[in-house]
């Protein structure tokens, strides 16, 4: 089996009496646990997702609102990768079952993301002014 690459990656997530679990199944028949880290990603946008989670300090102790925001942000970040579409659906897996996030909540998460983007924009006018003043005349 290790001689064949089926080009398949699978994330397995679930709830058990001992808590939540996350596994990565990839080639060649590799099964890796991600319970300790608390996240993983697959597909063409997986690198973008991993960087977004890391920079956003996502971890297994993050609150549900923080995690919803992080997942949404990571998905949006991954949309620059080939093959990642703009449509987004999210669901929460819990002991009660699987709950698909309704449009109203998705919109609120998107608005929080837009607000965070606006807050994070640096004031570049002083840099621009200093550059204009210091640049050598051509």
Outline:
By secondary structure, the chain is an alpha+beta fold. The protein is built from 4 helices and 5 strands. It has helices at residues 46-55, 64-78, 103-120, 125-134; strands at 10-16, 19-26, 30-33, 91-94, 97-100.
CATH class: Alpha Beta
Elements, N to C (H/E)? EEEHHEEHH
The average pLDDT score comes to 91
Amount of helix: 25-40%
Backbone shape: extended
Q: Work out the count of structural domains.
A: 1
Provide the spatial order of strands within the biggest beta sheet: 1-2-3
Would you tell me the structural class of the helices and strands? Answer: alpha+beta
Q: What's the CATH architecture name?
A: 4-Layer Sandwich
- Multimeric state of these chains? single chain
Low-confidence stretches: none
Question: Tally of extended strands?
Answer: 5
What is the H level of CATH, i.e. the homologous superfamily?
Aminohydrolase, N-terminal nucleophile (Ntn) domain
| Biggest sheet details | 3 strands, antiparallel
**Named CATH topology:** Glutamine Phosphoribosylpyrophosphate, subunit 1, domain 1
What's the alpha carbon Rg, rounded to whole Å?
20 Å
Question: Distance N terminus to C terminus?
Answer: 64 Å
Number of helices: 4
Beta-strand proportion: 15-25%
């Amino acid at each position: 089996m290790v001689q064949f690459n089926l080009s398949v990656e699978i994330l397995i997530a679930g709830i058990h009496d001992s808590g939540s679990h996350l596994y990565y199944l990839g080639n060649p028949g590799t099964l890796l646990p991600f319970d300790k880290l608390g996240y993983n990603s697959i597909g063409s946008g997986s690198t973008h997702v991993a960087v977004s989670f890391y920079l956003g300090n996502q971890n297994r102790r993050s609150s549900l609102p923080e995690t919803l925001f992080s997942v949404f942000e990571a998905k949006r970040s991954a949309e620059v990768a080939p093959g990642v579409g703009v449509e987004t659906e999210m669901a929460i897996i819990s002991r009660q079952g699987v709950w698909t996030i309704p449009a109203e909540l998705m919109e609120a998460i998107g608005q929080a993301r837009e607000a965070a983007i606006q807050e994070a924009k640096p004031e570049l006018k002083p840099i621009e002014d200093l550059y204009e003043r210091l640049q050598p005349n051509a």
